[in-house]
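Our consortium's second objective concerns turning raw sequence data into structural hypotheses that experimental partners can test. To show how far this objective has progressed, the report includes one record in full. It was chosen at random from the queue rather than selected for favorable results. The single chain below, 245 residues long, was entered without modification.
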Amino acid sequence: MEVRIDPAANILLQGVAMSADNSKVISELSGVLYLNPKDAGAYVNRGLAYDGQGDYEKAIADFSRALQLDPGVATVYIYRGDTYYKKKDYDKAIADLTRAIQLDPKIDGVYINRGSAYYQKKDYDKAIADFSRAIELDPEFAATYINRGLAYAEKEDFDKALADYTTALSLNPEDAVSYSDRARAYFLKGDYDKSIADCSKAIEIDPKLAVAYRNRGNAYNKKGAWDKADLDFKKAQSLGYKWLP
């Protein structure tokens, strides 16, 4: 299962609107920097455009230059930390997001993103602590409960995981992935009927959610409903689900 980072933590520093045409934005901002190479905001916004193109090295270089010019801006550490996260350099992501928290401890999205980095490092206790802090700051954001539930599930604390998934679904009842995540927790607890019910709800919301068919197939398999399991496994495969070797 995959945790969800919070893109809402990324807010443009200088108000230059990012667009689908990142190449045009990069060209325009390069012109700005040619005229004024000490414009920290231009480096930030060009870094965001590079990030949008998937050119993470150039994005990091621009964010780093902006921080050299103005080291006290929390959002720039967030941008660079999230870019490191995309590169799977979780230690550097955590370092940058920690610095952002030191500068501004009330941005809830930063805790979500740092918690996600801790989760990827399998440091589930620190992930749970960060997700819990994010919930304190914004108790209405459903994805944070899902993330904390995933961390609890990895620790095999399925009751707490189920409680978090249920809260998330009360906040966002049309989230198919959340039903599938809760189904997995029910499955691991051995409650196969509830797992099947949640998978079926996920499929009702999103008939192309391959993992929901996989999860339901597993539950049918445990109940000895071989034909139904086989149908679900074949459907998951047809939708592109990849089984690990």
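The partners drew two points from this record. Residues 22-35 form the longest helix (14 residues). The chain has 13 helices and no strands. Both points have been shared with the crystallography group to help prioritize constructs.
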